[in-house]
Amino acid sequence: MRGQAPDPHRGGPTRRSQVAVDGALALMAVLLIVQMWVLTAALESFLAGHAGAAMPGAAFSVGLLLANFGLYRLVAGTVRGGS
Predict the structure, then answer these.
(1) Spatial separation of the C-alpha atoms in residues 76 and 21, rounded to whole Å
(2) DSSP code for 4
(3) pLDDT score of 12 more than 70
(4) How far apart are CA 54 and CA 47, in angstroms?
């Protein structure tokens, strides 16, 4: 059908779902790298005898773990719901 404008709804929700999943997975990768760095720094601080500096790092690492788990559930729900 030459001459017609492309349908803006072509690809619909599946394309949007794929973009959301790709973005969430990229964010998960970044958060995991940051979590590994924070956990390594906290463990190194703890082994050096600075428990006061290690505890906030460990708590922040747990917060990153929860954020990653929430993103995982978002991705799993999107993929399951989209199929």
Answers:
(1) 9
(2) S
(3) no
(4) 9
Find tokens 């970044």 and name the residue. Answer: 30
- Runs of H (alpha helix) within 1-83: 12-47, 51-82
50: tokens are 């600075």
Residue 29 corresponds to which tokens in the numbers above?
């990768």
pLDDT for residue 54:
86
Model-level pTM? 0.70
Which residue type, as a one-letter code, is found at position 61?
A: S
User: Sign of the CA dihedral 5, 8, 9, 13?
Assistant: positive
Neighbours of 24 (CB within 10 A): 16
CA distances from 28 to 3, 24, 32 (A): 43, 6, 6
